[in-house]
Structure formats: structure tokens, C-alpha cells
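Suppose a classmate hands you a notebook page containing two proteins, each written out with its sequence and a corresponding row of C-alpha cells. How would you begin to make sense of it? This section walks through that situation. The first entry is reproduced here exactly as it would appear on such a page.
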Amino acid sequence: MKKKSIKPGTMVNPVPAVLVTSGTYDGEKDIITIAWTGIVNSEPPMTYISVRESRHSYGLIKENMEFVINLPTADMAYKVDWCGMKSGEKDDKFAEMDFTPLECSMVKTPMIEQCPVNLECKVHQIVKLPSHDMFIADIINVNVDDSIISDNGKIELGKIGLLSYNHGEYFALENEPIGRFGFSVMKAKTRKRISKEAHMDRIRANKEKRKRK
């Protein structure tokens, strides 16, 4: 396959498109759209967000040393983009986009009710970089909507169309799984058991759909 060299750029794609809340539930609060985020450690679970110092949320995060990563769904793409284009200095993003702030249990920053997953984070370290500052944080609590937890306790993120950002465009992450971690070395007995569990999950899901009709 022939390749062409291009100038250096942010070409690790796709990346999550998330809504990061900052401030306090009872006081000033803001929402910022972030694509520069991910996981940096497993035990304890740690994440990061990179924010320009010029952004309004930057000061709130630095002042309180905490934030919440809210995972939006694809049908929120307009709101996600809007929250990234506007400044919390001039606009109340919760009110303008009809987002409901909910109190968190471990941080003072509110989460967004409409987002199915919310990660409460405490800042562990701030790393100054040329264009952004990286806030490395401990994930101290996770909130998940009951609607995306199956009967056997599995969190079904693949079925709700989470939002991703891919080189300047938004995409829905809604696909049937093509494998699971370790499937390349999985024993036949384990593969058979997992296949049976997936089949039973589909039957339960179809029954639920028929009930709603």
C-alpha cells in the first residue's frame, strides 16, 4: 500500500467527544466540549482532559480541582458542538441547551442528567503544555443510567450511540461488537458460553421491545 507523508497533526482518531462540567452545583457552573481526553491509568482509574487556559472552564477546574466527564449520545451532537463554540463567560450553557444539572455524590461539580454516563473526577496533577494544560485526574465515582444496564449487570454502551470526534467531524459509535478483549486467544468453551449469554441477552431485549409496543 502506497503512503504519502503529510505535516504533523492530531491524527489519532476517533476520539471521544465529551461534555465536561466544572464549577459547583450551588454556584457558578459551566460546560465545555472536550475531545482531548482518555484513560491514563487502570489501578487506580485515572483520566485526563486538556484545556486551553483561555477557556472559561479552565479557571473553574483549576479553582475547584475537580470536574465531571459526561458522555453524550449522538442525538446530542448539536448541543455538544454548541457548548464547544460558546463561552460560559457569556452564556448559561445548562439553560440554553436544556441540560439538567444533578448533584454528584463525591464532587461538588454537577453532572448532566441527560448524559447516560458521568465520571466524577478529582484533579491529581496539572501538566503545562504549549497549547493546552493537561488535567490528570482520579476517577472517584461513576454514574450510569439504569436504562443501559442489562439484566445480567452488563453496561451496554455500544447500543446507545455514544458520540465520537474524527478529524473535524462527529460520528455515532453504534455498532454490533466484533469481538471482546482477549477474543483472539479465547478457548472454545469460553467462546461458546459467551455466545450463549449474548443470545439470551438478545431474547430479553426483544421481549422488552414487544412489551413497549
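The notebook's second entry, a different protein, reads as follows.
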Amino acid sequence: MSKTKYPTDMMLDFSPLGEAWLEIRWQLQPVKLTGQAQDPDFPFALGPFYKLVSSKYQHRKDLEVSRAPIDLFPHVVRHQFWTGEAVWPVLQLGPGVATVNFTKPYNWAMFRAESQFLIEKLLEAYNGSLPPTESITLRYQNLEKFDYSSMDITSFLSSELNTVFQLPKNVPGTFAKKAFPIGMNLQTEFELLDPPGSATIAISTGAQGKQPGVQVLAENQNVAIWQLDVASRAENAPALSDLPSVLKWLDSAHAAIHEWFFSFVDGKLLSHYGGKHK
């Protein structure tokens, strides 16, 4: 068991969460004549899946890509299932891929329960069995208002996110209009022990986009973004037909992301978010 600093009952009065989602992918079957890959059971599973989830997710939305031939865009979601029009969370389904996505409201118990619901109904729709897992990913994207066009993002990282990034002395020197970057996209990757797989931590700048039914910050507000991903692939990933193994993976992945999130915000931001134990 990994040693952790931040208790699992840590809570926030205000969360910088932009979106959290679980994505599962299962292996596709190659089509010899075309060289493409397909999920041959998807057309037969879509209707039963909607019936199975419609008691909670009654609002179905077919995305633009759903008009294209199924084999043309494998592992791309085609259909969304909302609890109401633009009411989160949302389930998404496509050939060889399914997701559950949250914005706000969010808590871990809710997220875990809906992840279990997704997999249970997916298994029922596919007659109790899915092909071998290609990948499973848990991802959290966090946003904090920051005008990186007029302020130094590297100073924000050190003062707010406990992350030091320093360029050589003469970069950018006299060649740039400003001494600090006007954008950032940093990414690191780690090999994980528990769950076995990899973790990606990305820090970038951007603008708050428009989300249906929710707005974390003002639309087009400049933001600093830190995204935390845990992914397992192929033999490192649990079999989707083995629900207890999937839930164990989910708990382990969340434990890592929980520890990293609080490691980043421990200090001014944690006080700002009202961090406390339950």
C-alpha cells in the first residue's frame, strides 16, 4: 500500500474541478477486407443499453459523428445519455468505448456509484461479456482563474501549485516582448505500481470553454489548468467483465489522483477552496 499524506476524507467548500471522467475501451475486431477494426456487437447493444439506463438517464443525444458509418470512427463516442437536458452527469457510448463524465455536483461516492452503474448496464447490454480491455483511464481536469497574458505563469506555479519551473537565464532575453511566457503546456509521465499502468500530469494555460448546463468560471476566462490522469492498458487493465476488479482499479487510481491534487494545492489554494476533513 502506498504511503499518503492527505486523508481520503478531505473535502472542499469550493472545487476547481472542470470535469472528471472515466473512460473504458475494449478491443475491436479487425476486418480483413478493409483493414479497419469494428465492434460488431455495438449496433445490437445500443438499444438495450438505452433501455437499461433510461430510468436515470432518459435524455438521449445523438452526436454528429453518429451519422457516419460505424466502422469509420472506432473508439469514438457517438451517443450521450443525460439525466435531463444538459444535466450532469452524462454517460457516453460508442463502438468499443464508454465513459461517465461529471462536472458539478461531484463527490467521489457519486462518481464511483455511477461508474459502477455504467459498467453493470454495459455488461447487460452486451449479454454479460465484453471483449478484452484495451484501456481504462481516470482523468480529472482542474481550472483556476489566471490571466497568463498579463501575469507570469511560472510565478503562479511556484506560489499556488507548489511547482517550480525555471528557464535558463538568457531565455527569452531581449528577443521577446515579455519576460514571461504567454502560454504553457507541460507534461510529465510516471510508471505506476498501484494500479499498474501510467500516470500523466499536465499543466497548461487556456480559456474556460462553454459546458452544457454548468459554468465553472466565466466563458473565455483565461485559466491555468492542471490535469491528472491514471491509465492502464492491455494486460495491466482489469477485465471489464470482472466488476470487482474494475472497482478495485478505480479506487487505486482515485487514491493516487487524490494525493496528487492536494499536493498541488496545499497552501494558498487549499485555504481558498476551504479544505477540511469531513
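A careful reader of the second entry would note: The chain has one domain: 10-277.
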